[in-house]
């Protein structure tokens, strides 16, 4: 019993030594870890400092290169301005020389005439002043040769559903041959003209004209091999009297552009026909649909015109309507024709041309039949047929229906 009690302090002492050694080892390990952290911190700071120096140097180099490029570009542009200035002023300098020469000639004439008047009688008048007077009968031009431009607005198109067709011609001479034309327009209330066409043609269709608003058009020309444009023609004023083609706003399943002439099918939960906001299509016109994007096709899809809005139908493939499906099938009063057009793809343009044919009577109880001649064109192919309606229509609605999202169509 006594021996066991003597061993217990030694065991406690041994345990204390082991604990001290473990603590020292732990402290050394923590010291190593701390040194590692300090080394990592030092490396990070050095790397960040080097990166900052590299970035600063890189951007300083970029600034130098960019500044050099800008300086070179500035010099080039200034040289171009100098060249244009010299080319533009040269005719004026030449004109000034001619005018100064004319002034000197006139002064000589006045001086010589005064001498003659003081030394001769009227009966003995010299012919010299009369001969020199002929040089005063023509004045030099102060502007370079330019064409006489005449602008004309086609009145048929000026009243044709927010479309203008400006036409122009150029009276040329031996010193000027027109190569390009520049057409501008603006609202009369603005007087801020903007380019609408630059090219060699002498007519151009201007779209998206607001109804019942006066517009000014003007045109100028540029000669063959010349940089400068001629003076503007006298502005012509015109306006459109018909409202533009617009889709009905707020129809579920479709979103419209700001002008409401582009409709996008944006979901497949709802169905039905999206009609025009009003019957704005008149016989004798051309109604055009351009498919901007396509979705999944369906045989029930339709693009066309109708005599009146009829809610409750999921397609224009119904009575009192003519349409084309996205697969190219043509429907007249709900019946599919034998002739078929190419399938509608992205970028396809479908046009409808409708003309009144006859207005007759029948012996049945339905009253008169009104016949329209319809031409539908798509992808360089067309079908022509007669469309019978129950009654005459002064104007028609247009519409479309798509059963899957992604279809976008522009009407004009």
What would your notes on this structure say?
There is one protein chain. With about 400 residues, the protein is of the alpha+beta class. It is built from three helices and 19 strands. Among the domains are: about 150-240, Immunoglobulin-like (Sandwich), CATH 2.60.40; about 255-360 and about 370-410, SPRY domain (Jelly Rolls, Sandwich), CATH 2.60.120.920. It has helices spanning about 1-120, 130-135, 155-160, and strands at about 150-155, 165-170, 180-185, 195-200, 215-225, 235-240, 255, 260-265, 275, 285-295, 300-305, 320-325, 330, 335-340, 350-360, 370-380, 380-390, 395-400, 410. The strands form four sheets. It has a seven-stranded antiparallel β-sheet, with no helix packed on it. Strands 9-18-11-12-13-14 form a six-stranded antiparallel β-sheet, with no helix packed on it. Strands 4-3-5-6 form a four-stranded antiparallel β-sheet, with no helix packed on it. The longest helix has about 120 residues, at about 1-120. The radius of gyration is 43 Å and the shape is flat. May play a role in the negative regulation of cell cycle progression. Its main location: cytoplasm. This is Cytokine receptor-like factor 3. InterPro entries: FN3_dom, FN3_sf, Ig-like_fold.
């Amino acid at each position: 019993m006594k021996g066991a009690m003597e061993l217990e302090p030694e065991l406690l002492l041994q345990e204390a030594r082991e604990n001290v050694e473990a603590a020292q080892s732990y402290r050394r390990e923590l010291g190593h870890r701390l040194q590692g952290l300090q080394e990592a911190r030092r490396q990070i700071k050095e790397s960040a400092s080097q990166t900052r120096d590299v970035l600063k140097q890189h951007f300083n180099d970029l600034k130098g290169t960019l500044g050099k490029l800008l300086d070179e570009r500035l010099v080039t542009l200034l040289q171009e301005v100098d060249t244009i200035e010299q080319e533009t002023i040269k005719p004026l300098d030449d004109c000034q020389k001619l005018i100064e020469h004319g002034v000197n000639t006139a002064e000589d004439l006045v001086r010589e005439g005064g001498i003659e008047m003081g030394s001769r009688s009227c009966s003995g008048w010299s012919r010299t002043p009369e001969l020199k007077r002929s040089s005063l009968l023509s004045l030099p031009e102060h502007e370079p040769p330019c064409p006489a431009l005449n602008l004309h607005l086609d009145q048929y198109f000026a009243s044709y559903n927010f479309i203008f067709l400006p036409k122009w011609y150029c009276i040329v001479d031996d010193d000027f041959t027109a190569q390009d034309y520049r057409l501008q327009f603006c609202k009369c209330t603005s007087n801020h003209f903007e380019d609408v066409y630059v090219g060699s043609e002498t007519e151009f269709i201007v779209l998206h004209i607001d109804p019942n608003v006066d517009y000014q058009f003007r045109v100028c020309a540029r000669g063959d091999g010349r940089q400068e444009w001629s003076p503007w023609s006298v502005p012509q004023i015109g306006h459109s009297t018909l409202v533009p083609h617009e889709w009905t706003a707020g129809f579920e399943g479709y979103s419209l552009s700001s002008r409401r002439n582009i409709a996008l099918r944006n979901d497949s939960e709802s169905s039905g026909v999206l009609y025009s906001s009003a019957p704005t299509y008149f016989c004798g016109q051309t109604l055009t649909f351009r498919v901007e994007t396509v979705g999944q096709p369906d045989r029930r899809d339709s693009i066309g015109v109708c005599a009146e809005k009829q809610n409750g139908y999921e397609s224009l493939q119904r009575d009192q309507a003519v349409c084309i499906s996205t697969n190219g099938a043509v429907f007249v009063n709900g019946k599919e024709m034998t002739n078929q057009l190419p399938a509608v793809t992205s970028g396809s343009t479908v046009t409808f041309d409708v003309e009144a044919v006859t207005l007759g009577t029948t012996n049945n109880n339905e009253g008169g039949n009104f016949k329209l001649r319809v031409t539908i064109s798509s992808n360089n192919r067309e079908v022509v047929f007669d469309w019978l309606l129950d009654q005459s229509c002064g104007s028609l609605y247009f519409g479309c229906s798509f059963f899957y999202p992604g279809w976008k169509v522009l009407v004009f």
